[in-house]
Amino acid sequence: MWGKRRGTEPLEARSALRARALLSSIALPIAIAAAAFFAWLASATGETVWAVESGIAAFIALVAAIDLVVIWARIRRRRRAGTRESEEP
């Protein structure tokens, strides 16, 4: 199952790291601001829905931050190896 290739995907498929970095860079501050705003609403109104919304936004911020760390590590690894994103097959 895992060893047999099916389809027409390239042998070494790679994602567009700079596009992912841009999207995560946009999502991170927005999610942090949303989490803070929803946390403020939860404390001001006492409604549980805002605390849940704050948790969801904080989770999205965490995912974006982890994605940025992984992306920058991959870009650094490629630079050390001497390949660039524009040189990919």
If you had to describe this structure to a student in words, what would you say it looks like?
It is a single chain. The chain has two helices and no strands. It has 89 residues and is mainly alpha-helical. The radius of gyration is 19 Å and the shape is elongated. It starts with 16 loop residues before the first helix and ends in an 8-residue tail after the last helix. The mean pLDDT is 86.
> How many distinct helices?
2
Shape: elongated
Distance between the termini: 25 Å
Low-pLDDT segments? none
Structural class: mainly alpha
In angstroms, what is the radius of gyration?
Answer: 19 Å
Q: What is the total tally of β strands?
A: 0
Main sheet record: none
How much helical structure, as a percent, in the residues?
over 70%
Strand content: under 5%
Mean pLDDT, nearest integer?
86
| SSE pattern | HH
Brief overview:
The chain has 89 residues and is mainly α. It has two helices and no strands.
Write the layout of secondary structure elements.
Layout: H1 17-45, H2 48-81
Q: What tags apply to this protein structure?
A:
mainly alpha, elongated, 0% strand, 2 helices
